[in-house]
Inverse folding.
């Protein structure tokens, strides 16, 4: 199984190299894809049982977190990107459609899915809706704390208009961040509710996915908007925000006594 998982990460990483044909940086795109594939291993091993279910969970995560939420933040602090935002968003969605298809088919070809008859217990719909809202509020708190620290001590020089932009938006800025947090959690719900592993490992897996898809993987690749130091600082910043968001939401939405999939243990997995 370790060999198959390794092949999945290495071969799956190639699906992210399509942009390298026009933008270059093949090795960085490949590394970005390898990290993305590695973060998705729990999903293809212990997540949705069908190929269609896996594809749906992966594409929803990639498009919402990797394209929509990321582009919304970029347009906010890089106003010059507004003109080409639609084109960039469409291009990102097409790329992620290809990536999701390749990773789903590759997981099936390598027979990575672990067999299990267990299911994950879900909260009632009304309770889940309230907890998604609470997770969004938690994201606003994480964003305020760690975003402020990062801006004050590391990135102020890169965003001279940031304070003016936030001041102009006023309360609406925080409403937007609340919406982003809730949208990211809604995008991960199919994963949170299908990961047939224990509650805490599931929470760590979801947190890792939100960090990798929302920052770590795309920021590895050089771009014209940020210098290397700026990208690496944001990778750490997004770790503190998105990782905590994923952990918080998964712990809230997964009951403590939820079923545990025994195939999580190597001795009983295929």
């Amino acid at each position: 199984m370790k060999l198959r998982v390794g092949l999945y990460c290495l071969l799956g990483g190639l699906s992210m190299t399509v942009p390298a044909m026009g933008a270059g940086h093949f090795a960085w795109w490949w590394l970005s894809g390898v990290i993305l594939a590695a973060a998705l291993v729990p999903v293809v091993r212990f997540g949705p049982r069908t190929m269609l279910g896996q594809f749906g969970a992966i594409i929803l995560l990639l498009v919402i977190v990797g394209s929509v939420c990321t582009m919304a933040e970029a347009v906010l602090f890089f106003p010059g990107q507004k003109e080409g935002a639609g084109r960039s968003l469409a291009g990102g969605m097409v790329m992620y459609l290809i990536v999701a298809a390749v990773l789903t088919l590759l997981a099936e070809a390598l027979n990575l899915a672990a067999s299990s008859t267990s299911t994950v217990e879900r909260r009632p719909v009304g309770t889940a809706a309230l907890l998604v809202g609470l997770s969004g509020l938690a994201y606003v708190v994480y964003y305020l704390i760690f975003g402020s620290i990062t801006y004050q001590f590391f990135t102020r020089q890169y965003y001279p208009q940031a304070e003016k932009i936030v001041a102009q938006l006023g309360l609406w800025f925080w409403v937007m961040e609340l919406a982003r947090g809730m949208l990211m959690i809604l995008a991960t719900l199919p994963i949170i509710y299908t990961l047939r592993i224990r509650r805490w490992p599931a929470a760590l897996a979801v947190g890792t996915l939100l960090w990798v898809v929302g920052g770590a993987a795309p920021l590895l690749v050089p771009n014209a908007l940020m210098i290397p130091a700026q990208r690496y600082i944001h990778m750490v910043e997004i770790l503190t925000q998105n990782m905590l968001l994923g952990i918080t939401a998964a712990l809230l939405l997964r009951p403590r006594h939820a079923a545990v999939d025994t195939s999580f243990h190597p001795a009983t997995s295929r």
